[in-house]
Design a protein that fits this description.
Elements lengths: L13 H4 L10 E2 L3 E5 L5 H8 L2 H6 L8 H18 L3 E7 L5 E11 L4 E8 L8 H15 L5 E7 L3 H9 L3 E15 L5 E13 L7 H5 L8 H4 L1
Parallel strand pairs: 5-6
Antiparallel strand pairs: 1-2, 2-3, 3-4, 4-5, 6-8, 7-8
Helix pairs in contact: 2-4
Length: 230
């Protein structure tokens, strides 16, 4: 039996083979959007977006969400995530108006496996325009080409059909269900929030899955809901 602190003879220990890195502080452009680093000028729009009921329902963003919290995300949390190698946060803005559409976040990055977890939030006024799919696809293409990543993972709450549709449109494959692994939130008439346990659907995206993604973004048919296949 091997001791807990011993490595196999001739093999590197975990700390020796673990690769680390950091994402560059860059911008990514699409036909309609620019994904760029968050800036302090985004504070009011970010706070307003995070106070939406759908954001409160499907994320762990505190409710209500203040401008001080938005400023902390922009000036402290986001830089720390990138500098540590854990991930990167993008502000998603309209190319023409420069208005903040949403955010795309990469987190839990494993530089040895070349994998990361992707999530997205879109402002209420910008929903229904395909911005989430466009931003997620652009991020995936950048990861697979420029950053040489091999896997992207997404997790969507079982009843969050809008997020599931984004995953399917960019080519993600559903890998299974983590039963009871997600805490969603419900707001009562008096404004208080309560927790509701539900399932997580796990999706993966590999470089070869991007084939035909552009056609899928324009296709509103063929969407499969969680209840259809579970």
């Amino acid at each position: 039996m091997l001791g807990s602190s011993a490595g196999l003879a001739g093999f590197p220990t975990v700390t020796e083979w673990r690769m680390t890195g950091t994402f560059p502080n860059i911008s990514i452009s699409t036909e309609r959007l620019v994904l760029r680093p968050l800036d302090e000028d985004d504070v009011p729009a970010l706070a307003e977006m995070m106070n939406d009921e759908q954001v409160g329902a499907w994320t762990d963003v505190p409710q209500p969400y203040s401008e001080d919290q938005a400023r902390g995300w922009i000036t402290q949390y986001a830089p720390a995530e990138r500098e540590s190698g854990r991930g990167i946060n993008f502000a998603v803005t309209e190319f023409l108006t420069q208005r903040l559409v949403g955010v795309v976040q990469l987190a839990k990055t494993n530089w040895h496996v070349r994998s990361t977890e992707l999530s997205y939030i879109i402002a209420p006024w910008a929903r229904g325009e395909g911005y989430a799919s466009e931003a997620a696809l652009a991020t995936a293409q950048w990861l697979f080409t420029d950053q040489k990543f091999e896997r992207i993972e997404l997790r969507t709450a079982a009843d969050n059909t809008a997020s599931q549709q984004v995953a399917q449109k960019i080519g993600c494959i559903s890998e299974g269900v983590l039963r009871g692994a997600c805490i969603a939130h419900v707001r009562a008439d008096d404004g208080t929030w309560s927790d509701v346990r539900t399932d997580f659907i796990v999706w993966s995206l590999l470089p070869e899955d991007l084939d035909g993604a552009g056609d899928r973004l324009a296709d509103t048919d063929g969407f499969t809901t969680y209840s259809d296949w579970n």
